Amino acid sequence: MTLKTILLGACSALAFAGLASAETLTIATVNNGDMIRMQKLTDDFTSKNPGIELEWVTLEENVLRQKVTTDIATKGGQFDIMTIGTYEVPIWAKQGWLLPLDNLGADYDVDDLLPAIRSGLTGEDGKLYAAPFYGESSMVMYRKDLMEKAGLTMPDAPTWEFIADAARKMTDKSNEVYGICLRGKAGWGENMAFLTATANAFGARWFDEKWTPQFDQPEWKNALEFYVKLLNEAGPPGASSNGFNENLALFQTGKCGMWIDATVAASFVTNPKESKVADKVGFALAPDTGLGKRGNWLWAWNLAIPAGTQKQEAAEKFVSWATSKAYLDLVASKEGWANVPPGTRTSLYENPEYQKAAPFAKMTLDSINAADPKNPAVKPVPYVGVQFVAIPEFQGLGTAVGQQFSAALAGQVTVDQALQSAQQLTTREMTKAGYIK
């Protein structure tokens, strides 16, 4: 055997070994527009990282939460990267379920992350445990043409009283135009995200300082009665089945006068390729009732690496790519600046090109900065979180209460019955968990 043959054989073996060692990252994500767009752009990542392949598990929001929570709590090891929210990050980091993101690369610029968003993703040890893919608050998106037709002018900072009056005046059921679209689909991150933030503005809270549930208090009754009555009079039929994606579709097809929801929706409702009303949309802060708190939440969808992965280095490379400044530039080059994932980086809001392309930029940033997770309610509370309560039990509690409130909206139970059930089930669970002595 010649030396040349030996060398060629060795090279072939090395090449084969290289192919065999290609790593596949399994990524669990939510079926929101920005994540779908990311999947279409991942050739940019795989071309720069030829040894890494990607496998996507794309799920509806409630299903995603259930799957990733089960997997991480049982150490299932099904996923190498998970899309999780601001609620899960500090709780899971404390449990030791997430790896700290120590190696995002020299040019990642972690200090460019918006302080309000970054603080929710930082563990007690000061380390980042998830990287924000997009950040959001909530705000009013409305049809300027319908507002004008109703003889009204939307203030920058409306009250709920104004919103309700406008919704009724904008409703034209014979033409399938409804004054307001709001989340009704049960889920702690669906209807309860909206209702918890709204209840804050009405002076309600989940718990008092001693962790006693507060659904038997008049503030919750006022909030829930207001919501049910408003949607029954000025909302679309079947509102109890509508979550973020369903209301987005209704708004884009011209069936909603107003929609109060995530600021991230702004780029979709103003995109002429996707929205029939793109040139008619205005924005305002989430409403208040004059008590000093607006109904705007604070959230980020983030990429995190479960402690059970065997592929930490490859996973960190992907997380860094998908949440970097360079990724924002990539989306801008393909889809335009208005469509980059919002709410994560200071530099984006200082970018004149983005300011020019995104009429919603200032309102988004103002809404994010106005949210106060440490003081979410009018009265003192023992928890952190605007549209959620940052305790492990909230995922189950929020969904159970959300089912009661969705049933009230559908007319299956009364508001009083829904609140009574919410009070009972929450008291039972909090007692069992040891919060109530």
Automatic annotation (TrEMBL):
The keyword Signal applies. This is Sugar ABC transporter substrate-binding protein. Residues 1-22 form the signal peptide. Belongs to the bacterial solute-binding protein 1 family. Keywords: Periplasm, Signal. GO terms for cellular component: periplasmic space. Gene3D superfamilies: Periplasmic binding protein-like II. It comes from the Bacteria. It is found in: Periplasm. CDD domains: PBP2_TMBP_like. The lineage of its organism: Bacteria, Pseudomonadati, Pseudomonadota, Alphaproteobacteria, Hyphomicrobiales. Its main location: periplasm. The keyword Nucleotidyltransferase does not apply. InterPro entries: Bact_solute-bd_prot1 (IPR050490), SBP (IPR006059).
